[in-house]
Design brief:
It is a single chain. This protein has about 450 residues and is of the alpha/beta class. The chain is about 35% helix and about 20% strand. Strand 4 and strand 5 form a beta hairpin. The protein is globular and about 65 Å long. Bound molecules: flavin-adenine dinucleotide. The site of flavin-adenine dinucleotide has 39 residues, from helix 1, strand 2, helix 8 and helix 9.
């Protein structure tokens, strides 16, 4: 018997889930409330689409496993392969090294990534996409699910996958079905984004991304990253009272008053394309699905519908792709998780949850350090924070092992135990005995930026 799966939402989590279902030989029907654009265009149902979206290396590998030519397709459409080891990154303790190769990310706008993923998923055998249709209700009988849409159609499914994002109605539908669920876990540091697209005037003065991290002390930061079509996305990032607005004057002022002028200098070599897009729904929110015995058979939640993170750590898409791989493997080995009763579904939902454990821990423990955050760190988080601060100091002083350990964990390529590997411990002990090595210099490329500007005169804006 072919398993019939209904997926709610055709954004990245829903599309990856559909690719996973197809790879397992099951049939997927995706229901999407938006009428989807033919090209890489931002859309209403994904309001964060105009903000920069970085794909961590683990996410790139997982996406490639689901859709084997996606990396090449991105590159063919002008996305840029960036070694994150070359980024100019100003953190709490100084500049990170720019001379240690780390992991590749393929830099593109969010609409381009989604468009290319969607094009490929549409072509997969066994996948149907219904667009412009909203799922309104979810019903269940002894054997299967009924998914009721606003165009009065009802679909039957062995398995329903909720990929409807942060605003998912699943908690409401579960309550209507009489299934009790715990309140979600929430940590909100009240972060805001304001993003503007720019085009370089002539050859861009640098080819690397620049990040000025928002620390608990400053609460303000920014990122400038090149994307397809010769464009750059420049985003200002502020916590609490520092959340940026749509005002152009404030945007420029924000950049000019950061701890380093690199991004303000860079924008003087650019001309803006369009207005400023802001986004403020960024709190960490994690549902506790699949934990209780009342969790029903044949129901899963993935992506932001299960767990949404503070996006500044760039984890959401990667987690969604990893969760899709878990669904693919489960469906391959157990072709009817719904038919096998609630235990198999519950186990799978818990594995899906586990894929979010490390990203959740990174995002929430960092956010809890910000004064604008709801809540405070546990003593375990504070203790771990002492160690990671020591490693961050080593990174700012050019320690290769500490840098690579951070990069591996950040890109979800290694478990947090990597931060305690013997080489890193040796580095920390050596620094304690001999003192820290010299601090990393400001990346030379950035110095040239300001120098060029002075030599050429400031280009018009
Ligand atoms: C400002 C910002 C920046 C981000 N930056 C990054 C980043 O750098 N890297 C990264 O990995 N992640 C980033 N993220 C997170 C990323 O956007 C999400 O994790 C990713 O889009 C996966 O989300 P999703 O598919 O679960 O949900 P969404 O992308 O929110 O999509 C949900 C989909 O469901 C549809 N839908 C909703 N309700 C219904 C319904 N009832 N019926 C039918 N369809 C429905 C919507 O129209 C939409 O298409 C960022 C998020 C924000 C807010």
């Amino acid at each position: 018997m072919t398993v019939k799966v209904v997926i709610i939402g055709a954004s990245l989590a829903g599309l990856f889930a559909a690719a996973a279902v197809a790879a397992a030989g099951a049939q997927a029907v995706i229901i999407e409330r938006d009428v989807l654009p033919d090209g890489p265009i931002p859309r209403k149902g994904v309001p964060q689409g105009r903000q920069p979206h970085v794909l961590l290396h683990r996410g790139l590998l997982a996406a490639e496993e689901l859709l084997p030519d996606i990396r090449q397709a991105l590159l063919s459409h002008g996305a840029l392969p960036l070694d994150t080891g070359t980024w100019a990154w100003l953190g709490e303790y100084g500049w990170s090294p720019t001379w240690i190769p780390a992991y590749e990310t393929v830099s593109a706008t969010r609409p381009l990534l989604e468009h290319l993923v969607r094009e490929r998923v549409r072509r997969l055998a066994g996948v149907t996409l219904h667009e412009g249709v909203r799922v309104n209700e979810l019903h269940r009988n002894a054997r299967d699910w009924r998914v009721v849409c606003d165009d009065a159609t009802t679909l039957e499914a062995d398995l329903v996958i909720d990929a409807s994002g942060r605003g998912s109605r699943l908690p409401h539908w579960l309550t209507e079905l009489g299934i009790s669920i715990s309140e979600p876990l929430m940590v909100d540091a009240h972060l805001g984004y304001a993003c503007r697209t720019y085009r370089a005037i002539g050859k861009p003065p640098i080819e690397i991304a620049v990040m000025i991290a928002a620390t608990p002390q400053t609460g303000r930061g920014a990122l400038a990253i090149p994307v397809e079509d010769g464009n750059w996305l420049v985003v200002t990032i502020g916590y609490g009272a520092h959340r940026p607005s749509r005002s152009v004057a404030e945007f420029d002022e924000f950049l000019a008053t950061l701890p380093d002028p690199a991004i303000a200098d860079l924008t003087k070599h650019f001309e803006p394309v369009g207005d400023i897009a802001i986004h403020r729904q960024t709190g960490n929110r994690r549902n506790r699905y699949g934990r209780s015995r009342t969790w029903p058979a044949g129901l899963l939640a993935v992506g932001d519908a299960y767990c949404a993170f503070n996006p500044v750590f760039g984890q959401g898409i990667t987690v969604a792709a990893c969760q899709a791989l878990l669904i693919r493997d489960a469906l391959k080995h157990d072709r009817t998780p719904a038919g096998r009763g609630p235990l198999a579904t519950r186990r799978l939902q818990r594995r899906i949850g586990a894929a979010a454990d490390l990203p959740w821990s990174v995002a929430t423990s960092e956010d809890l350090r910000h004064p604008s955050s709801s809540g405070s760190q546990t003593w375990v988080q504070r203790l771990l924070g002492v160690w990671t601060a020591e490693l961050a100091r080593l990174v700012a002083h050019g320690d290769r092992d500490a840098y690579l350990a951070f990069a591996r964990v950040y890109h979800l390529m290694a478990a947090p135990a990597m931060l305690f590997n013997p080489r890193v411990i040796y580095s920390a002990c050596r620094a304690a005995v001999r003192g820290m090595p010299e601090q990393n210099p400001r990346p030379r490329a950035l110095n040239a930026l300001a120098a060029n500007r002075t030599a050429q005169g400031t280009p018009g804006r």
